[in-house]
Structure formats: structure tokens, C-alpha cells
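Q: I'm building a small set of examples for a reading group on sequence design. Run inverse folding on the following structure and report the sequence directly after it, with nothing in between.
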């Protein structure tokens, strides 16, 4: 997981677009983000270039057209970010995070049932 690049919040928005549909041209990424953000096209192109430099995405080129696609999966990035968050905030310990979350969140009966099922499966491992 250490080879997963560190992705900023703004870069995450670009990655979400590429994870949902790729390859995409810069213009297509800009179009996808114009409803969600107030970013200028130049900002989005800068984010694409940063993600290429970080090796989170790459591109294929046909003439003057660049088509961008992710090099890392959303799942890999989520796992890496989760591990980083746990380490920074909870010293790597999962239990305090879970306890804090369960005390603060209102969960539906379905969510509680799903959590119980996950915990039961964990005890069987």
C-alpha cells in the first residue's frame, strides 16, 4: 500500500470522475466536474497534470488528444487513506475509531444488522 500516491481532496474529485468512466479527455473531465465544482478548466488541467506526476493516472495520446485513465483503483486508494487516517488520528488502533463512531452515529436497524454480521464473520476467521 505504500506505493499508493497521496491524493489531495481536489485530486480525489478528479479521480472519482476517472474511476466512474475512463479513459476521458481533459475536456470530458472538465465537463463532468462543472456541475460539482466552480473550478476553472485550467485548475482541472493542473490537477490532471499533478495526478500524472504522482503516477495516480496516465494517458494515451492520439494526435493532440490525451485520454486519461487511473493507474490505481478506488479501493486501493480508500484503503491507503483509511490506514493513513487511523495512524494519524488513532495511532493505528481501529477500536477507538469504531467506538467513537458507534457512540456518535445514529444507525438504522439494517446498518446495525450488517455490522453484527461483519463482526460475526470476523470471529470465525
Amino acid at each position: 500500500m505504500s506505493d499508493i500516491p497521496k491524493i489531495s481532496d481536489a485530486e480525489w474529485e478528479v479521480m472519482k470522475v476517472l474511476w466512474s468512466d475512463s479513459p476521458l479527455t481533459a475536456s470530458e473531465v472538465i465537463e463532468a466536474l462543472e456541475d460539482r465544482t466552480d473550478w476553472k478548466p485550467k485548475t482541472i488541467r493542473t490537477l490532471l497534470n499533478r495526478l500524472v506526476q504522482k503516477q495516480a493516472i496516465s494517458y494515451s495520446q492520439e494526435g493532440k488528444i490525451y485520454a486519461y485513465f487511473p493507474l490505481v483503483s478506488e479501493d486501493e486508494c480508500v484503503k491507503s487513506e483509511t490506514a493513513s487516517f487511523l495512524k494519524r488520528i488513532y495511532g493505528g488502533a481501529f477500536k477507538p475509531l469504531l467506538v467513537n463512531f458507534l457512540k456518535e452515529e445514529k444507525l438504522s436497524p439494517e446498518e446495525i444488522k450488517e455490522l453484527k454480521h461483519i463482526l460475526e464473520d470476523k470471529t470465525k476467521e
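The CA atoms of residues 54 and 86 lie 23 Å apart.
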